[in-house]
Amino acid sequence: MTEEIIIAGFGGQGVLSMGKILAYSGVMQNKEVSWMPSYGPEMRGGTANVTVIISDERISSPILNSYDTAIILNQQSMDKFEKTVKPGGLLIYDPNGLTRLPERTDINVYSIEAADEAARQGLSKIFNMVVLGGFLKLKPLVAPEYIHKGLQKSLPARHHALIPENEKAIEIGKGLLKAVHLVN
Amino acid sequence: MGELRLMKGNEAVAEAAVRAGCDGYFGYPITPQSEVMEYLMAEKPFERTGMVVLQAESEVAAINMIYGGAGTGKMVMTSSSSPGISLMQEGISYLAGAELPALIVNIVRGGPGLGTIQPSQADYFQAVKGGGHGDYKMLVLAPASVQEMCDHVKLGFDKAFQYRTPVMILSDGAIGQMMEKVVLFDQIPRRTDAEVVAQCPWASNGRPKTRNHNIITSLDLDPAGQERVNLKLQAKYKMMEQNEVLYEEISCDDAEYLFVAFGLSARICQKAIDLARAKGIKVGLFRPITLFPFPATEVSNVGNRVKGILVVEMNAGQMIEDVKLSVGCKVKIEHFGRFGGIIPSPDEVVRALEQKIIGG
Questions:
Q1: Which of B6, B31, B312, B338 to mutate to test the interface with A (most CBs of A within 10 A)?
Q2: Fewest CB within a 10 Å sphere: which of A169, B98, B326, B342?
């Protein structure tokens, strides 16, 4: 099993930390992982993205130009990454703020209204965990107990009291998916 | 087994330095390697092991602090990225001339000049052919994973002291910034003063009554004396060539074609191998791990069994010169590179193999 994922949105949406929690959870479940962030002019200009690879085998290139899954949280990222999903792959997006919705018909597309729901429940700061929940519902790569360990490892100790809230957000996300287009 | 963590390459360098028993880190911040000193400052090794961490006023100051620390037999290191490493070249030449052990980490970014902050391998010539003046070499290690970023720190210090030479880790912005699983080796205690004296009888750390004072210098105005220094250095480099070559072969046994690549490019070539083999193209990878000493015999052995070689680098063609010198002219050898901070994608590497080697 190898899953190649791009997570992309604005800086501040928790794109990099969502990737880090996913990657650390993979480590806890004894998977091979890599986490490759954008750190350059893109990040300084507001957009942020991270490539996460989770695999049972040694990971070759940490840098890819096509992905099994794209998790897209803003319009710039939709424009850039919709075309990079492998045929038959998965695209998850939050429609909040999007002006153009995905058009591909050869991939599975789901929307998740994570930003709105997180705001309603007072969880805006961990909106990224709602999105992660949606992804894990469709691709349960990592078991919940390892997500728990991944949160413990990737959050600083002073934030460990917030782990139950993060896990709640993940559970909320699992119920928010809407299928937009399915290949089969 | 050691402690398992998910770390950035830069963080792994910093943690490995503490665990290797490093006595002092001196550096100046520059993207994409700033996490090395950031991690050290947050981790406070001065409380854990007594290791000194100091932000110098410039890269020039940092490399000369290294010179001073190394002259006393201490285990010292610095890290920077390309423009900062250029500033350090005079000091590196002096370290080589004075035969001082030190570890220098270059997290390469695109150049020339201030260039960009994105990853590159354009400092190969500078690292391997002597970026400073005079006939000197450094042992140059090229990690291709976060695990190797960690392991090469320990290895680099070992070799620096074994040969009394500066050692460079030549990495790049991507390996510095990416996180992977790393198994950290256990803490090695810092050497005591008595152990430093015993290990480094040449060091200038206080004269006991039993010997004359030690002098750390790279200056000998007598040409005959300076030639002796040079002959000694060359003999040392010969020893490294005979004993310190490291490399990795991947899918080479049945290969009809060969990629030669180091560091991040080698990782991309591994993916390219999967893509090419899915199309029926039997290609393998030869990855030099030491860039000096270059695995000349080893790459020649593999290279002369195949129909063609593509050297893949994030530069305009630097290591290819050493590949050509090693393999000779019986096999077709071409270069594929992207520059200025662009990372080649696996499928464009396969395309280059098809166009430049198979179809060319």
A1: B6
A2: B342
Q: What span, in angstroms and rounded, lies between the C-alpha atoms of B278 and B350?
A: 11
The distance of B273 to chain A (nearest Cα, Å) reads 10
| Domains of chain B in sequence order | 3-194 (3.40.50.970), 247-358 (3.40.50.920)
Residue B269: DSSP 8-state? H
Q: Report the number of distinct structural domains present in chain A.
A: 1
Tell me: the pLDDT tens digits for A77-96?
Answer: 999 999 999 999 999 999 99
> Which residues neighbour B179 within 8 Å (Cβ) at sequence distance 6 or greater?
A20, A23, A33, A34, A35, A36, B6, B7, B8, B146
Range of the domain at A128: 2-181
In this structure, the number of other CB atoms found within 10 A of the CB of residue B278 comes to 9
Which chain B residues contact residue A35 at CB under 8 A? 6, 178-180
Task: Mutation target for B interface from A59, A60, A153, A154: give the one with most B CBs within 10 A.
Answer: A60
pLDDT at B324 over 70: yes
Task: Please check the confidence at residue A43 and state whether its pLDDT lies above 70.
Answer: no
Of B6, B116, B274, the CB nearest to A60: B274
